[in-house]
Structure formats: structure tokens, C-alpha cells
Amino acid sequence: MAASAAVVVPAARPADAVAVLFVPEASQWLSSSSGRIATDGYSWMQAVHWVAGSGLYAPRRYRSHGPRSFGPTTVRVAQELAALFPCRPGITYLVRRTGLSERTVEYHLGMLREAGLLAWIVKGTRVSGGPAQASEFARMIPMAFDAALGIRTVQRDEGAPAYTRAASGIAEAGRDLMAKLAKKAARKVRKPRSRTSTKASTRGAQQGGVTAVSDEARCTPMQVGTSSVSTAGTTSLPPESKLASGGSKSPIVKKSKAKAGGRRNAVGRRFQLARELTQELDWLRGCSVPRIAWVARNVADAGWTVTDVKGWLHLRGVAARVHRGSGLLAVLLAGAEMVLDTPEKRVNAVEQWRGAQEAARRHRIQQVRARAERYESDWEAPSNRAVRREVEAVFAHVKDAANGRHQPQNEVTDDRDEDAGLEPNDQELAQLRATAAGELMRGETTLIRSMDPEMALRIFGERLVRRAAQIEDGSRSSLMTYGHR
Fold first, then answer.
1. Which of these, 81, 116, 219, 290, could form a disulfide with 93 (CB 3.0-4.6 Å)?
2. How confident is the model over 250-261, as pLDDT tens digits?
3. Quick count: other Cβ atoms within 10 Å of Cβ 419?
4. Where are the domains of the chain?
């Protein structure tokens, strides 16, 4: 193989003409791997079945102990890894799920790394008497798999690492084999049963059968930790001395109720915060609650509430367009618990956010009022010439009053005397009232409010004038909008 991370080693016997696949320990990390990251567990299982059936990896040639072949047991372990996201398997979890011993699980994990199917992202640690920190793996597809099936890959981002390349096509010669691998990946390999129940019960007593995993020992992205990444919960393991004591007593160590309750409460707080965020933030609607709990684990452990998170997001700023809510939240919350590390700082952030909310609300109210004042209605002027002159005179009077100019008393008296004999008849009053009623149905009060209150009451009547006042009072509220289409 061309890459340095995957080395093709010749067989031990000269008669073997087929080389085998082997990745040395120094190249079993994601940064030094020559393979590409599998986009999902299904495509990764296709590569696992291909390695199991191709015979390119033979563990018996590189060690004197442990499993001698890449067989169904390795595929069973791989199935459990394919279901985890992210891939952070605890040894205890895999032991419970597969019914294998701890040493056997470690052997098969090592085989998957040597075959180029797994790469370390973070290597876990184990301290005697303390909680074990699980390793985090990246599911990889070896270059030999792409070469054997004729899979074409492309690097979409030139600045990204080589392991982020994606498949873009496949050769015709590899389609039949890919279809067979797809059928194998869709089937689940189960633990083989013995012929007699006695042997099965004996083996289960010796090795530990496949049992249901409790909530405390479940290996999910929310309850497994690493040595460098803050976790959503840890799993307490018994000391190695008691596991290897060989006594008649049960090796299970009694857990402290206070510590167990504290872990459960921590996980519960994370899920509660995640649920509230998905309900109150529009750009997180539809996101997975466990994923959001994992993203917000650090601030949840620091005692943050959903209001504190909103205050921090106000300081941090949110993008106008959100393509992936959980990813954006992870970026925005990075290091938040270290910046706002005291309750006083979080209170100040919340006060700034609430002040901005109040300012935005007042701005919206002012916009609604300004829009209502600038609104130009499409009502038709009355056909009666005398009424039209009276309306124009009222408009001029209101405009002069707004500009600080007052009309002399004698001029007003003269106008009134001049128009005293031009009172509209009953037909014109009915038409004018019908026009005003139509405007009120559309939420407009221009015709009625443009006149003097006494004149409007005399022309339109008490009912229409009262309705116009109600509409104007409602237009000042931000919860009500008037208009027409």
C-alpha cells in the first residue's frame, strides 16, 4: 500500500503469495491513519465483513497468544461499536453486551485497530481504585478496501485532513461484492448457542452471559468519559485486586448511594437543560435531546439554567442562518463555563439580555405606531361639495395647529357663517356614514378622526365615533394589528 500508515507485511511462510494487512501501533491514531472515516455504522460494517472474509489480516502471524482469526466474535464486537455515537466503548459495557471476558474484548479491539478499522482519538486511562476513563475511537475504512472494490474518493475540503475524504463512486467490478457486503452488514451476528442447556449454563457461569445493561452501566455518549474531554457521566469499576482475588465472594463492589445519586442527578440536569433549550430556542427545534445534553454537559455541570444560556448566547451572538443547531450550540458554548465562572457574572449577562429584549420590544411598538401614523388610507372623499370643503377645512385647521399657527377667531367665525347654510342632506349623511363604517371595518379611522369631535358626533353618530376610539386604542397595543389586504 502506498501510504505509510498501512504497511503490507509479507507472510511468514515463503509459499504464501498473498500479503496481509497490518497497521503498526504508531499508526493506530486518527492523525496518522491512512484510511478514511466511515460516514455511518452501516458502511463501516461492510468494511468489517470485507476484512473478515478477505483474509488479508491474520493475527496468528503476529502474536503467540489470543485469538487466531478475524472471525464472528470480532464481528460481534464491531456490531456493538457500530451502534455507538460517538464511539466511546467501555470495556465493562462490551463485556455485558457480548458475554465475553474482559481480556477477550481487549484482544478483539486490538485486532480491529491492527486491521485499520479503528483509530484512536483519545486513549483512555485506568487508575487503580478510581473510575476508568473509556477510549474514544474513530471508525475507519482502510485504503485496501477502497482499492479492492474500486471505490473512488474525493477530498471536498482541500484544507481538511486526508481521513475526511468521502466516497464519490465505485467501479463496475466491485458492485457485486459491495451488494454482498451490504447484505452481511444488514444481518446481525449473534452469539452461537451450545447444543445442550447444561453446557450453555456452565459457560454462562464461567464467562458471564449476555445480560441486559442497567442504566448505571450503559455505555452511551452521555455516560462515558475520556481523559481529555469532559463527560456526561462516568462508570465506576472495582479495583483490579478484587477482580483477580478468585474468592467465593462476588467481585461486585458496593457503590456509594450518594455518589451514584450524584451521577444520576448530573445526567438528569443535562437532559433537563437540553429539553428546555430545544423548547425555548427556535433554531434548536427538532434537535436530538441526548445530543444537546452532550453538547451542553459542561454548562449543565456548572449549574447553568436555560436563562443563563440565553444570556451567554446574547453576549456571544447567534448566526443569522443555522444549518445544524447542535453544531452551532457546541461552538457557542465552548469555554462558556470558564468565562462566566461565577453566579454574579451570569446574573449580569442575563440582565443585559433582558435589557436588550425590552429595548427590542419597545422598538417594535414604536414601529407599529409610526406605521399606523404614516398609513395612508384609500377612502374616497365624499361626493358632496359642501362636506368635502368642510373636511378640507378641518384638515387645514389640524395642520396649522400642529405647526403652531392659530387661525384668527374672526376667520373661523366667517367660515362657519359661510358654511352654515351648506349642511348635507339626509342622503349625503347616509353616504358619508356608510363610507366611515366601511373604513372602520378595515381598521381605519381617518375620516372620523379628521373632524372636530362635536362635528364628527353630529355627522356620524355616537356608535361610529365610539368604534373609532376603540380601534385607535387597540392600535397602540403591540398584541393587535389592524389592516386590510
1. 219
2. 444 455 444 445
3. 14
4. 7-197+213-221, 257-365, 377-475
